[in-house]
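Researcher: Please generate the 3D structure of the following complex. Treat every line as part of one assembly.
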Amino acid sequence: MKVGLFVPCYIDQFYPQIAVATLQLLEKHGCEVGFPLNQSCCGQPMANSGCESDSKATAKLFVENFKEFDYIVGAAPSCVGFVQEHYDIIPQTEEVKHVREKIYDITEFLLDILKIEKIDAKFPYKVGLHQSCHAQRGMRMAQSSEINGPAFSKQRQILEMVEGLQFIELDRTDECCGFGGTFCVSEDAVSAKMGKDRVADHERNGAEVITGGDVSCLMHLEGVIRRQNKNIKMVHLVEILNNTSPTP
Amino acid sequence: MNHAQAATQFIKDEARTDWHDKALWFVRYKRDIQTKKVPEWEQLRELASQIKANVLSELDSYLIQFEENALKNGVHVHWAKDAHEHNDIILNILKAKGVRKMVKSKSMLTEECHLNPYLIQNGIDVIDTDLGERIIQLRDETPSHIVLPAIHLKKEDVGETFYKYLGSEKGASDPKYLTEVARGHLREQFLTADAALTGVNFAVAETGGFVVCTNEGNADLGAHLAPIHIASMGMEKLIPRQSDLGVFLRLLARNATGQPITTYSSHFLKPNNGQEMHIVIVDNGRSEQLGREDFRKSLYCIRCGACMNTCPVYRRSGGHSYSYTVPGPIGSILSPGIDLKKHSSMPFASTLCGSCTDVCPVKIDIHHQLYKWRQIIAKEGDFPLSKKIMMKVMGFMLSHPKFYRFAGKMARTALPIMPRFMLYNNLNAWGKEREIPQAPKQSFREWYLKNRE
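Model: Done. Output below.
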């Protein structure tokens, strides 16, 4: 099984350790992983700002980079979801359709494609899980609190395999962190307030670590935590699953 | 002032912002408890959504059927193509009967049409009788929420308002006392009014009747006491059958305020003896919205206001930060169709978190419509040139990996050595309350080339 490693631009430039963890995790579970060197971004920032047509060239480049792989995996539901949902902005060739169909977020790939049942990792800390809106309400990787249906969360399910990890429960299980793409600067007052409130919820409920699947949310929350000198660590869930997470 | 600027003003009082956020979240919380008691809740939503889809696809025939039945019931039916016609029709009805004072129950449509100022200019005394509406009418404000029009005010603010306008005790803030003051004041208005106006929550095509939902009974008091009852209704308020109320009445109050049903669900069919009943059916841009395929579903809305209660941006910016009468997520997909340039900032007042879509009782794809309006606004609306250029530059950079890598390298090299005052200043909206990520020495690609190639 040839897997193309998709490394979103934020991760590539600011959080390389998350991409290293993703790569190692895939290899540990028997995947042959390739990293196309000419990749950049999925194109979402322009599209969410109303400029979908400025995303087309980036989308085409993405497909060019990943068309040869059996699966494409990234550690970012938001970016993966954008490819799945919004790559209708370019003509639907077989290659585009293939990429849209075979792209997965790492959590879903491990659970639904590789069907892993255990993880060799230990993380004996109190962890708050921030489920990104795109993972939850976009890709339906977890039940959203608005819907009347059975509770489930794939990110939680996989983290439950980690030895010693203890979840803290939030007052508001799935409130948005406030990042929202260019919203974070065009509506900076509301965005920062939402970030502060989200961090406060985790802190109030005793989190030593906040984890999640989307780097954009984590980057935003980390920005708040560092400004406020809070004693909370921010790590991506692949770092925990790969046993390479910094500890509190 | 655009939404971001108004929101910045609102948030300056952080304690009040927290209070506003919590007050609305509490309504959302009550809604969750109540809706989870109904095992078939999701089926009800689906059914309601399908009924509305049917109504909109056959709207012309349902409207005619409704008119025919209402006429048979002895009701006068009027058609208004826009806000001006709506206001004019009502003024003419009132003038013909020599009405000097009219009581009104809550109607967002009349807010949308700015009926009150129009009638007052023309010498009619208009009294809002919904408690929240009356409070903001006294204060000369607009509603900040479609179900809870005075949710931006604390009980102390209400005490101050009643002291100023209704002569209550100074400094009073006891809700029971204030409610009694309002009750005493409003009784007088009900008894002396010559006409009553209500909104319409649901109009039933097969009977020509309509239903008005209130918690205060003020619609009934007004409509039964006054010799003239006028009902203003948006043309999308139709449902085909009386039995469909069994779907919508179960959804509305549960989703709006977490009540199993509104205290009063008043069914009106025909005028009482000696009374006149009028229905004004209003288009005001609805036909045009019906013609926009991507945005048609916005007309499913039953005005429960749950998308406001759940919206993390609305809760932290308040209803008055939006440029349209209907604020929040639903307002942000209705308003661009009314005036694209004026309301250009509204669809951007969202993180696209999707909570509005999941909470909607008629399954309007609100956040997808926000995304689609953004695409239109970037082309035709009031969209900052600087942003347009920035997106072009980003689009170029991200599709040319060499430029992307060069820009990334520059940023990672510059960030650690730049003095703090250059990084954190007014030009950096991110940095006002957040730190910039710490730049690693090498990108993942650089690591990969060194360690794997």
